[in-house]
């Protein structure tokens, strides 16, 4: 036995002695980065993998590169590609998890701050990266592998929420990327409207029993839910109210973003040409003309719109406008009238059961939960914060019966929140599905902060005819906070 131990010791010393200086340098750099990462992670047990790095770079007992000694040229060629791809995926995994990742703007909720077709680099270190809750996942997709249409992650293992130290905290006015809170339950064939809106509109039975239309109903972990991007307008512990589109925090009006937009009607003699739309900066999807019937003329004149002597009505349009765009229209002598579209909701606002009479323009007052704060549990506060307690803070066995709230099966008169929450809204206020409709964003759903626009494509134009927005490349992704 001693002889075998001596042989191993001699072999180990030989391998160490024969290791080239360049490999020692590479190992030292990688080891220091690994140790710094473990210290940041705060889980020192992960250092058990340091000997593995030592073997990979120095001793080589585990034959990771066995294929380099193969006599088959094809094996060596194929495995060299496999080796490169595996290393690349591991690198991408760690970068996307702990540093940042790319993100595409899919909707117009933040126009004109961020445009549809913008590809952003999202800084996850801004607020501190989350330790993966579903650590085994394919790094290049969010939740579904393309083509084969299966999950890109495994349900096991699952880790609890932990956020590493970041460069700062979410501030008012920050544009934030987060996992969609109401995306915990989804239908595989219909994503808009979301599952909860579908259930409210059609009933749970209709959604769950019509797989041909809606597909399967599935649950998604927090970090595998779809990514959304909105602006943080309300912070933990604050009270938010909206009056005629103006946001009040703790009773004081806050400054609107420079590019905030509201839907407006406007009438133009002779109509607008494509060049007019382009100069105004209104996308093709937002260029809508209001249909006018003879029976509508009395209402139209009452609102101040013009009617021609022959009874015809100059074109009336509706589109989202920034203050600057509105001023440009009002300065055009062809424009006879510009007016804000009154809010008229066709869907319930958040929170269901406690938002009677609230609209997107006149909303609240609503208190935003803060970690460590205790509230009295009444039927009204339960209606407001049930989702936070049940869905986000893990009290599945929580309900109200005969006016008494039960948490984990026991009567409860108060509840203390375990997380901070945020109220997120889009700048395109009348065309943004945000916290006014689906509620608070828990801290464990926060992904990061957009940093720069990597590249931007205009879907209304071809690549060779202005399809690439060159002026947006490397543009700050949160201009109001610069």
Give the amount of beta strand, in percent.
15-25%
**What is the number of strand segments?**
24
Strands side by side in the biggest sheet: 1-2-24-5-8-22-23
Structural class: alpha+beta
Share in helix: 25-40%
Q: Globular, elongated, flat, extended or rod-shaped: what is the shape?
A: globular
Oligomeric state of the chains in view: single chain
Largest sheet: 7 strands, antiparallel
Uncertain stretches of 5 or more adjacent residues: none
Mean pLDDT score = 93
End-to-end gap: 68 Å
Family: Belongs to the peptidase S26 family.
Subcellular location: Membrane
Keywords: Hydrolase, Membrane, Protease, Transmembrane, Transmembrane helix
EC number: 3.4.21.89
What does this structure look like?
By secondary structure, the chain is of the alpha+beta class. Among the domains are: 97 residues, no CATH class; 43 residues, no CATH class. It is 28% helix and 22% strand. The protein contains 13 helices and 24 strands. A 7-stranded antiparallel beta sheet has the order 1-2-24-5-8-22-23. Strands 11-10-9-16 form a 4-stranded antiparallel beta sheet, with no helix packed on it. Strands 13-14-12-15 form a 4-stranded antiparallel beta sheet. Strand 18 and strand 19 form a beta hairpin. Helix 2 packs antiparallel against helix 3. The longest helix is centred in the first third of the chain and has 26 residues. The radius of gyration is 28 Å and the shape is globular.
């Amino acid at each position: 036995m001693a002889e075998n131990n001596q042989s191993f010791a001699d072999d180990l010393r030989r391998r160490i002695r024969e290791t080239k200086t360049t490999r020692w340098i590479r190992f030292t750099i990688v080891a220091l980065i690994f140790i710094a990462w473990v210290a940041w992670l705060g889980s020192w047990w992960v250092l058990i993998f340091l000997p593995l790095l030592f073997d990979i770079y120095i001793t080589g007992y585990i034959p990771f590169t066995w294929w380099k000694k193969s006599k088959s040229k094809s094996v060596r060629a194929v495995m060299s590609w496999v080796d490169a791809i595996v290393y690349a995926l591991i690198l991408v995994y760690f970068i996307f998890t702990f540093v940042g990742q790319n993100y595409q703007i899919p909707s117009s909720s933040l126009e004109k701050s961020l445009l549809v077709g913008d590809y952003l680099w999202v800084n996850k270190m801004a607020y501190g990266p989350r330790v993966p809750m579903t650590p085994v996942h394919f790094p290049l997709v969010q939740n579904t592998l393309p083509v084969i249409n299966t999950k890109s992650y495994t349900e096991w293992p699952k880790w609890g929420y932990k956020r590493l130290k970041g460069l700062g905290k979410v501030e008012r006015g920050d544009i934030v990327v987060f996992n969609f809170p109401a995306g915990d339950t989804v239908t595989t064939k219909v994503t808009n409207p979301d599952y909860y809106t579908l259930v409210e509109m059609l009933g749970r039975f209709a959604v769950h029993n019509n797989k041909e239309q809606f597909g399967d109903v599935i649950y998604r972990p927090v970090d595998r839910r779809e990514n959304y991007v909105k602006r943080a307008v309300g912070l933990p512990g604050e009270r938010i109210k909206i009056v005629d589109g103006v946001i009040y925090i703790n009773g004081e009006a806050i400054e609107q973003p420079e590019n905030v937009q509201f839907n407006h009607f406007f009438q133009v003699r002779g109509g607008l040409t494509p060049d007019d739309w382009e100069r105004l900066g209104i996308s093709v999807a937002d260029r809508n003309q209001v249909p006018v019937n003879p029976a509508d003329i009395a209402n139209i004149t009452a609102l101040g719109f013009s009617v021609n002597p022959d009874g015809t009505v100059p074109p009336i349009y509706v589109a989202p406008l920034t203050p600057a765009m509105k001023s440009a229209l009002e300065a055009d002598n062809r424009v006879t009238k510009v007016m804000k579209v009154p809010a008229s909701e066709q869907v319930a606002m958040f929170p269901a059961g406690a938002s009677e009479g609230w609209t997107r323009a006149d909303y609240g007052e609503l208190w935003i939960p803060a970690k460590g704060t205790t509230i009295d549990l009444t039927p009204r506060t339960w209606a407001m914060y049930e989702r936070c307690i049940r869905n986000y803070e893990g009290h599945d066995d929580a309900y109200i019966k005969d006016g008494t709230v039960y948490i984990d099966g026991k009567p409860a008169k108060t509840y203390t929140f375990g997380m901070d929450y945020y109220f997120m809204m889009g700048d395109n206020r009348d065309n943004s599905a945000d916290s006014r409709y689906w509620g608070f964003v828990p801290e464990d759903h926060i992904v990061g902060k957009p940093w720069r626009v990597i590249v931007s494509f205009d879907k209304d134009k071809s690549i060779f005819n202005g399809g690439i927005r060159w002026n947006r490349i490397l543009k700050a992704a949160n201009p109001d906070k610069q």
